[in-house]
Known about the structure:
Helix content: 55-70%
Number of domains: 1
Order of helices and strands: HH
Amino acid sequence: HDGGDNGQPATFKAPVIPPRPVVRVF
């Protein structure tokens, strides 16, 4: 997503995506 070099940024973004939609629904 962001960099996708070692796949670390992708894992960090995964947990950030779920909380985003949850806050919108609230």
